[in-house]
Amino acid sequence: MELVDHHIELPTAQTKLVIHLITDVHREAVGCDSRKFKRDIARIEHANSTPSLRQKELHYWFGGGDFNNGIGPKDRRFDAMAVSHQFRKHDNLHMEVAGQLVKELTPIRDYCLGYGRGNHEDGVIKYCSFDPAAYVAEKLNVNYIGYSAGIRLVIGIKGVRHKKTIIVYWHHGFGASRSKGGKLNMLYALRDKLEADVYMTGHIHEPLAFPAVRLGLSTRGKLRQVVRPLLFVNGGTYQKHHTTDGKAQTPMEYNEDHEIKVDYAEKAAYDPAVIGHQGWQFEFQSLRNGWGYKLRARDFR
Description:
Layout: E1 2-10, E2 16-22, H1 34-49, H2 51-56, E3 57-64, H3 93-105, E4 112-116, H4 119-128, H5 132-140, E5 148-157, E6 160-171, H6 180-188, E7 198-201, E8 208-217, E9 225-234, E10 236-237, H7 264-267, E11 276-287, E12 290-299
Parallel strand pairs: 1-5, 2-3, 3-4, 6-7, 7-9
Antiparallel strand pairs: 2-11, 5-6, 8-9, 10-11, 11-12
Helix pairs in contact: 3-5
């Protein structure tokens, strides 16, 4: 597990800290919704570059792995027709995809809190001895957080001495459950791995987010019960498991120019995926006895 310590200063006490968990892009897959992916990047860039919006919300992001589809000619799952037209003519598929991701993510590199890898980048490492996630992180000059990470966010306000610390645990994800309950259980199981305030994952291509609380006892002063808010977030995906942009065939004949687009997700009969990503926000609260905070899930789809 990688460890990263970030210090973030908000311009005002009313400014929300917004965290985007972008994961499972599968950029070169024929089913990748690259237009939606690039629109979301532009959305983050616009929010941070517009002074009036920046006063209200400051946007950061995590790369949660599987940005590369990572299925090349040496992989038993490889199907040339499952590769996007944009990348079919390249001799070095994985390098070209990583390079394209660097170009697309550069406008928001200054707001990246960590860029990780997933099982699909692991496939590239296995077959090609090349880590595309490490390459992207190096070129963007951002923290490479491997497959899991513990992140400490120390959040302050400009001109105010008070700060709050939020512990985030990110793991790309594990298992292969197809049921809604199984996917939720994978996310919820992260609470047993590391004590944290926010748990983030991906892998299962399911946009999930829900709050919880953890009970404890005070360690100073009068003994009392304390409640610690928790938040669980799965980022979702940009890969359509069943492509929907194809034209219907002309009936009763062989359609010579018709292209069959099938990738591993369709072959495995995965459920259709909801496209986009999830995240969360931190907001300071002014209380009678000092400063508090609220954590809330955000849906960016």
